[in-house]
Structures are given as C-alpha cells and as structure tokens.
Automatic annotation (TrEMBL):
Organism: Magallana gigas (Pacific oyster)
Gene Ontology cellular component terms for the protein in this record: membrane
Alphabetized GO MF terms: transmembrane transporter activity
Taxonomic lineage: Eukaryota, Metazoa, Spiralia, Lophotrochozoa, Mollusca
Protein name from the UniProt record: Major facilitator superfamily (MFS) profile domain-containing protein
Major facilitator superfamily (MFS) profile domain boundaries: 83-497
Keyword Transmembrane (UniProt): yes
TM annotation in the entry: 20-42, 152-173, 185-204, 216-232, 238-259, 318-339, 354-372, 379-400, 406-430, 442-461, 473-492
One Pfam family of this chain: Sugar_tr
UniProt KW keywords: Membrane, Transmembrane, Transmembrane helix
Entries under Gene3D superfamilies matching the protein: MFS general substrate transporter like domains (1.20.1250.20)
Membrane topology: Multi-pass membrane protein
UniProt subcellular location: Membrane
Length: 534
C-alpha cells in the first residue's frame, strides 16, 4: 500500500496529527507580527525641522510664544502645512539636519531614531524591503528540506528567528537594523513554509484544507494581536520586544521526539525503517487496531535529488504547471504587499485601517474551508478574475469620480484584498497537491522566490508617478496581470479529493488518467497503489 493508504488505516487526522499540527500551527500566529509590523516600527513619522534656538522644541505647539517661533522659522507648503525638510534662516530657505516628530500616532520609530526623513527617506524605503529580501532568501533555504529533511531545518530556523527578533531593538545603526530584519524575515518565512509542508504531509486528502489553512487563520489572529499591542505600545523598541517574547516558545521544538521528521518524506527517500517507527508511534497514539509491525509501503529507490530535478526539467507536464503556478504566486504577492504597505492610502486612522484589512484577509481565508465541496480550480479562477475586476472598477472611479463616492473606493480596495487573500490560501493548497512529494519543498521554495520578487517590486510602483496617474498605475498593473495569469490558469487540473503523488512518474500516470476521465467519463475504482493527483 502507499502512504495515503497507511494514513487511512491508522487515522488520517487522529490525536497524533492533531498534536503535531497544533505545535507547528500556533506559532504561525507569531509570524503575523513580522512583515505587518513594518507599518508601525518604520512608519511614516510626521515631522518638521527643529528650531535651532529653541532648546525644548517639540512638534506639538507648547504655547503661543512657541507657535510664533514656529511660524517665523518653518516655511509653509502650498496646502498650508509646515515644511518637513526646510527652515528659514534670515529669510532664506535652507535644508535642516535636525527634526522634531509628531507623537500623536507614534512616540518613537526607527524613522525618528535614525532620522530617516527628507534626503534619507530613500534609506527608509530600502529598510522596509529588507524583511522581504529575507523572504526571497527563505524561499531558497526552505528547499533544503527536500534534501536533508524537514525537522532539522525547522529547529535551526526557529532558533535563528528568536535570536534575531530579540536583537533588533538594540540596533545601533540602520545597517544593523536592516541586517537583523533580513534574518528575521528569512527565518520566519522558511519556518512557515516547512510547517505547511509537514502539516499537509501528515494528513489525508480531505484534511489538507483544514491543516493548510488554519495556520493562515492563526496568522491573521497574530496580525490582530499586533494591532492591539501596537495601539498601546507606541515606542518601537518595546513593541519589538513584546512581539519577540511569544516566539521564544518555539525553542521547545528541540525537545527530542516533540516534532518528528515527516514520515511521508522518509518514505519518498527510501528510509522506510525510520518512517515505520514514526508510523507505529502514530498508530499507538491514534489507538489504531491494525498491526504495523510488518507494514510494506509502496516505494521506489531514491534516485538522488540531482536525477529527480533532471526528470522534472524533462517533464512537460510539471514544467507547464510550475510556470503557471509561479506566475500566480508573483501576482498574489505583488498585489498583497502593494495593498498592505500602502494601507495609509485608505485615509483615516492607521490602526483602524489595518484592522479592517486583516478582517477582510481573515474572511478570505475562511472561504477556503469550502474547497472540498467546490474544488480548488473554480475558487482559484474566481478569486484572481474577481481581483482583476475590482481593479478595473477602481480605475473607472479614479477617472470619473476621484473625489466622490469615497465608500465605493474603500469597498473595491477591500474587495481586492479579499480576492487576493482567497488566491493566496488556494495557492498554498493547490501548489502542494500539483507536485509530487520528492520535490514538494523545492517547488514551494521556487514559487515563493517568484512571490518575493513580486512583493519587493510592488512598494516602488506607488512612487513612479504623482497625481491621478500615480493612483491609477498600480491598479492598471493589477488588472492586466490578474487577467493574463487567470487565463493561463485555466489549463491547470482539478486536485480535489485526490491523493498526493509521490514521484514524477505518478504525475505522468495521473495526467493520463485525468484525460481519460474527461474523455470517457469517471472511473468507478482506482488501484490502491495509484496516486490520482492531476
């Protein structure tokens, strides 16, 4: 029998799987602190030049005398606000080198600590994406899980993340801060990807939706918690320390036997003896009545990762799937981070806006629990085309109602966020099911590289033009790429209620079986040794 048949015998989601699943999923809530925290620790801190002769100058007006000093010293912008970067000296406007910061939203940020304003604002933009660059490298590192195993890499990553998170508040320069944020981002995403792979490899086909997406729900819970903590703690140093504390619990993973190696991966690499020990323990915890002492698991000799990758390159089916799925990941990350990092464009209170976006994201993820009834492909296509339609609607609003129907602007922005959240959630499940076990971590890492490239480009798209064109360019880009990639995605097969394929040969057989079903109608039975993932 194959591994999915073994899971069916011992319980595809018994007490053993629940324990492991909770151990690796709950920390995903803490990962929700990382990238979103950028909006609070590297926020756009309102400022103006410091008055040279005023020793205790503050952004807030202290008295009428202070107001007069500000009016004499700080020039006005055309809209009536004080200049952020220039000061009047003997009636002549000059750039300044010292600033005071508004403390109504933030008390202290990385921006104010290192004066990342005016001529240094570009450095702040670069620091914002250091975390995302870490994501890019993580997408490469997580692929090592297919070579050396999931567990040891997971332990190294959780340790690195804890170390980086606790060191960030003590940064003494922008370079140190950027380096540590890079390490935090790299370890966080790689940890998340490996957790996801372990989760879906421990359960049967029908439980993949629940296991793959509950971690996303906990991630959203972490974002809500971040908003709450950030609301009460406006000093970035203490905020970062508060956010780092819960992550320290993952160091318990080092306790022997607490987190096992993925038995499905062990089987795929021919290490049946080690897999059998884990299966016996799983059977005992799940109180399975079947005797697994003499279990025979269908397997093929481990060819080595180089041979496997060469076979992937020669498989037209897998190459086509990889190109289409990677394009989907690029689009999803491009739009998601574009909307997230420009949350201020919604107007109003930062904390309220952020909470609203997270709520819509959470709703998007919960829709995925209907995938076992609707299938993956239909929801996937609806999400990506829906996001494109919302972008087109926003473009039309800017053209014909830029300064009116404000509620509709907000609604379409939230609809885009909802659609892209659904797309992200579907992609995590869909990608894992479209590719065989021997390359699943490598594929997840590869498509994530594309996603990270998209996420790093996205923030800069908002700074290309000013005015109406500056607002429309991101939306035009969103509309074009979602529709184009959506059309390509029509060629992907449905994977609902199908077993995970183990080898590249299984995928080829499965594709042929899928075509026969389409041409001749559904088959009544499938051989036990066949993994029917299209």
């Amino acid at each position: 029998m194959d591994f999915d048949d073994v899971l069916a015998e011992l319980g595809s989601f018994g007490k053993y799987q629940v324990k492991i699943f909770l151990l690796i999923s709950i920390p995903c809530a803490f990962l929700g602190f990382g990238a979103p925290a950028t909006s609070f620790i590297l926020g756009d801190h309102t400022h103006r030049c410091k008055i040279p002769f005023y020793d205790n100058d503050t952004y807030a007006v202290q008295s009428e005398h202070h107001r007069e000093a500000i009016n004499r010293t700080i020039p006005r912008e055309p809209d009536g606000t004080y200049s952020s970067c220039t000061i009047l000296v003997n009636g002549t406007e000059h750039k300044c080198s010292e600033w005071v910061y508004d403390q109504s939203t933030f008390i202290r940020t990385v921006t104010s600590d290192f004066n990342l304003v005016c001529d240094s604002v570009g450095l702040r933009a670069h620091l914002k994406i250091t975390y995302l660059i870490g994501f890019l490298v993580a997408s490469i590192i997580s692929q090592i899980g297919d070579v050396f195993g999931r567990r040891i890499l997971l332990l190294i990553l959780c340790t690195l993340k804890v170390a980086a998170s606790f060191t960030i508040p003590f940064s003494v320069s922008p370079a140190m801060f950027g380096t540590l944020r890079f390490l935090e981002g790299m370890s966080s995403l790689a940890f998340y990807q490996l957790s996801f792979v372990i989760a879906i490899e421990l359960v049967g086909p029908r439980e993949r939706i629940f296991t793959a997406n509950l971690s996303k729900v906990t991630y959203c819970m972490g974002e809500f918690l971040l908003t709450l903590v950030a609301y009460f703690e406006r000093d970035w140093v203490y905020l970062q320390l508060w956010l780092a504390i819960p992550g320290a619990l993952t160091l318990l993973y080092w306790v022997p036997g607490l987190i096992p190696e993925s038995p499905r991966w062990l089987v795929s690499r021919g290490r049946i003896g080690e897999a059998t020990k884990i299966i016996k323990k799983m059977a005992k915890v799940n109180k399975s009545k079947k005797n697994f002492d003499n279990i025979i698991i269908a397997q093929k000799k481990d060819k080595g990762i180089c041979v496997i990758l060469r076979e992937v390159a020669q498989s037209k089916i897998l190459v086509k799937r990889l190109l289409i799925v990677t394009a989907n990941w690029v689009v999803a990350a491009f739009i998601y981070y574009g909307l997230t990092m420009n949350v201020g464009s919604l107007g109003g209170n930062l904390y309220e806006n952020f909470s609203l976006l997270v709520l819509v994201e959470l709703l998007g993820y919960t829709v995925i629990y209907f995938l076992n009834k609707t299938g993956r492909k239909s929801v996937h296509l609806l999400a990506i085309f829906g996001c494109g339609a919302a972008s087109i609607g926003s473009i039309l609003l800017i053209l014909f109602a830029e300064n009116s129907m404000y509620w509709l602007h907000i609604f379409l922005a939230l609809l885009s966020r909802f659609g892209i959240s659904v797309l992200f959630a579907v992609l995590y499940v869909y990608t894992g099911e479209l590719f065989p076990t021997v390359i699943r971590s490598i594929v997840m890492g590869t498509v994530s590289i594309g996603a990270r490239i998209g996420s790093m480009i996205s923030p800069y798209l908002y700074d290309v033009f000013d005015g109406k064109m500056g607002k429309m360019l991101p939306l035009i880009t969103y509309a074009v790429i979602t529709i184009a990639v959506g059309l390509c995605s029509i060629r992907l097969p449905e994977t609902n209620n199908r077993k995970l394929t183990a080898t590249i040969q299984d995928v080829t057989i499965s594709e042929g079986q899928h075509k026969e079903v389409q041409e001749e109608g559904p088959v009544d039975t499938l051989p036990l040794t066949f993994n029917p993932t299209a």
